[in-house]
Design goal:
About 75% of the residues lie in helices and about 0% in strands. By secondary structure, it is mainly alpha-helical. Helix 4 packs across helix 5.
């Protein structure tokens, strides 16, 4: 079992409960989660996490990336549990969410690659003083937005982006769970996408 899985399962174990011998009916499981039942959430996680990771790998072809994608889905489910209403089945909902998130990840990767290629083209040409000024202004605005992040979210974001630390390494250094790290990253990225939307070449809502 990797450190990532150990940390996630430890997070659930500190809630101090055990799974019921008689499994909650799948039909009622999400209703229990919506009512703040952490036991039901653990049951959902244990039942479907690895299954969804395996499904995501088919798209992103990287297990660690797939684990991050699926972990983010579960974080969002818990954070938004009061707002989510599942019309089909939980399993179908998770498959759809995993597929969409995996495809969105691939789109973001492609967009980054295209942006880097464009940047490389620009840097090979001699920039005018005006172009250099614009680049500098953009850099300052991005840094300002990062500095505006809430303290904990900003710290996690900088450790991940600037120090290239994995979520598990950040969790270990800050003595928090991986789920907490991912929650901070979700909030940080959401804020930065909104704050810097006028600078983005692509209009991303995910």
């Amino acid at each position: 079992m990797t450190y990532r899985f150990k940390t996630i399962f430890y997070f659930f174990s500190i809630i101090n409960y055990s799974i019921l011998n008689t499994k909650t009916e799948i039909v009622d499981l999400f209703e229990e989660i919506r009512n703040d039942n952490e036991y039901a959430f653990k049951e959902l996680f244990v039942e479907y996490f690895q299954l969804m990771v395996n499904y995501s790998v088919k798209f992103v072809e990287d297990k660690q990336v797939a684990e991050n994608i699926v972990a983010d889905i579960f974080v969002k489910i818990w954070v938004n549990r009061k707002k989510i209403f599942i019309k089909s089945s939980i399993k179908s909902y998770l498959y759809k969410a995993t597929k969409n998130s995996s495809l969105n990840h691939l789109k973001h990767v492609q967009a980054k690659q295209e942006a880097l290629k464009e940047l490389e083209k620009k840097t090979t040409r001699s920039n005018s003083p005006y172009e250099e000024f614009i680049v500098k202004e953009f850099a300052m605005e991005i840094q300002k937005a990062i500095d505006e992040l809430p303290e904990k979210a900003g710290k996690v974001f900088k450790m991940h982006r600037y120090e290239n630390l994995k979520y598990s390494e950040i969790a270990q250094k800050l003595d928090i769970s991986i789920v907490t790290v991912e929650t901070h990253m979700v909030r940080a990225l959401k804020y930065l996408r909104q704050r810097l939307s006028h600078l983005l070449p692509l209009n991303s809502t995910n």
